[in-house]
Amino acid sequence: MGAILRPIRVKASAIAYIRTFIFGVEDSLVSTxxxxxxxxxxxxxxxxxxxxxxxxLFVEALSMAAGSFLSEHTAEDYAQHREVSAxxxxxxxxxxxLSYLLAGLIPLSPYxxxxxxxxxxxxxxxxxxxxxxxxxIGGKLSGISMLRQAIQMALIGGSAIAVGTLAGLWSxxxx
Length: 175
Description:
By secondary structure, the protein is mainly alpha-helical.
């Protein structure tokens, strides 16, 4: 009976991998759709929106991967009070790069095949659905309410998306 009541120990690296995946997907969805929405509302041509999105995805995926690698490696060194292998940090960086890059394709893809007037709401909708799904995954992995996590992820991410959209509306009138 005692074995059943003992908490399950999870390796620190597994926690880092999950945290990085959730952060990479969420940040990519929110920042990509926020930027694309803001630019689309400012009445920029579809091709420019798409090219801007591609540049954003590659630059940010690499930047986030480098930041994840460096912060994870520093945290591991700190925890061990010595320099440690870069294996976990490298995996964390790779997870960040791939999760950011691939998740960003969700809000970007509508601009590849649809007019801006169709792509804009589709991009936002697909991103909100993906955020909801990410919340479900996070809830499942953590063993807490999947629905609560999904709603929280969609609401918080949706708020950030709204900021990008409002910034586009505001900046549209500047020039």
